[in-house]
Amino acid sequence: MKASSLFPSRTIAIYMAKLFLVRTFAILGVLVLILQSLDLLTESGKILAYHGNGDAQIWHYVGLRIPQILSTFLPYSVLLGAIITLTTLNQNSEVIALKASGLSAHQILAPLIVASFGVAILSFGFNDRIVVRATATLDQWQKVNYGPLPIDRGDRSNVWVRDGDDLIQVGQIKGRGNAAILGDVTLFDREGGSLERIIKAPHGKREGDGWRVWPATRFDIAADKAVAVGSIVIGHGVRPDQFSLASVDADGLSFADLHSAIDDLNAAGRPTASLEGTLWHKLSGPLSAMLMPLLGAVAAFGIARSGKLFVRAVIGMGLGFLYFVADNFALAMGNLGAYPPFLAAWGAFLLFLMIGETVLIRTEE
After folding, report:
1. Contact of 107 with 6, CB cutoff 8 Å
2. At 222, is the secondary structure helix, strand, or coil?
3. Buried (b) or exposed (e) across 146-169, using 16+ Cβ within 10 A?
4. Which of 22, 100, 186, 252 is most buried per CB count within 10 Å?
5. How many CB atoms lie under 10 A from the CB of residue 34?
């Protein structure tokens, strides 16, 4: 073997990567099976509570929930897969044999890190194409208590906009800009803080500087009487972006769609710091898989060489789970505006990258 190469032996690299990937996805499968079963214990009653729901709706829920569980627990599975792989290699003295042949700790970890990078790419694509759609659909389904879905995936729903003293509620919005189509529109006409009348219409579209709604019904509070008023224009001065950008669900949008929504918000002068943090976390989250072999490396190298393998594995798990705690904390601080977007998304990643490298270099290199 050529000790100067990052992968001195192609056979050993494939062997280690295969061990790691098999264990990672086996752990992920077990976690998904257990967690989905526990989740169904609480949600199946709510699903079946809606009249007409049955086994088909239960399986539909499972199909929407499993992508979320896979996305959430894939990094944990990579951490546990790395620790089990390295512990097994250490227990069988394979790590000692590799180091005796002249390999460094980084060369031994390289196949696992490269395999983790492949997992990260797979995770990003899976999140961007499947998880966001499942999340958006499931959120809408839960809002109607698991009844029939009235809104297509990707549409904005239940948006409130203030127009002076008046309030406008829109049940669903399709399209963007002047081409936006409103559905289930309700205008709460207020004067001096008191509700005077309510105007409802199932349809609405942009016209001039306002919105034409039809067929509209006006209910006068004082007269306690409803009158059909046909087609009327409401919301003069209300811009399309006030409807389309009033509710941005970052978890239900792909990377490109969220980036586009942030650009629109910036153009409208809206704050976007929390959304920018979530946007960058769509990259740093999947890439956290590359950190797991590094953080779990204590299961194979350094610290208590007297056979305390279990202690080293626990330390590796502790470092990994501490990363997830720090990552969630930083993202929460970013959502509150306490951290800038880049720090909220990448701070924990960069910090634990340095911690992992420091531990590895000081103990092995």
Report:
1. yes
2. coil
3. beeeebeeebbbebeeebeebebe
4. 252
5. 11
What is the distance between the alpha carbons of residues 365 and 361, in angstroms, rounded to a whole number? 5
DSSP character for 339? Answer: S
Output the pLDDT for position 265. Answer: 74
Residue type, 106: H
300 touches 91 (CB < 8 A): no
DSSP-derived pairing of the beta strands 194-207 and 156-163: unpaired
Inter-residue contact 253 to 132 (CB < 8 Å)? yes
Q: How far is CA 57 from CA 48, 70, 135, in A?
A: 8, 20, 16
Identify any residues that bridge with 214 across adjacent strands, giving them in sequence order: 203
Give the dihedral sign, CA 39/45/50/51.
positive
3-state secondary structure of 256: helix
Q: How many CB atoms lie within 10 A of CB 222?
A: 8
Q: What is residue 182's three-state secondary structure?
A: strand
Q: What is the CA radius of gyration of the chain?
A: 27
Gap between the Cα atoms of 8 and 329, Å rounded: 40
Q: What is the DSSP letter of 53?
A: -
The CA distance from 119 to 292, in Å, is 11
The DSSP result for 60-89, as a single string, is: HHHHHHHHHHHHHHHHHHHHHHHHHHHHHH
Measuring CA to CA, which residue among 321, 157, 318 is closest to residue 246?
157
* Average pLDDT per block of 10 residues along the chain, 365 residues long: 66 92 96 95 92 92 95 94 89 82 86 95 95 90 82 61 84 81 91 88 92 93 89 89 71 88 72 88 94 86 59 86 94 88 94 90 69
Element at 205 (helix H, strand E): strand 194-207
Amino acid at 222: A
User: SS3 for 231?
Assistant: strand
Q: How far apart are CA 220 and CA 226, in angstroms?
A: 6
Question: Residue 2, SS3?
Answer: coil
CB distance 298 to 316 below 8 Å: yes
State how far Cα 239 lies from the chain centre.
29
Distances in whole angstroms, Cα of residue 272 to Cα of each of 259, 313, 353: 10, 41, 28
Let me know: does 140 contact 253? Beta carbons within 8 Å. Answer: no
Indicate the SS3 state at residue 92.
coil
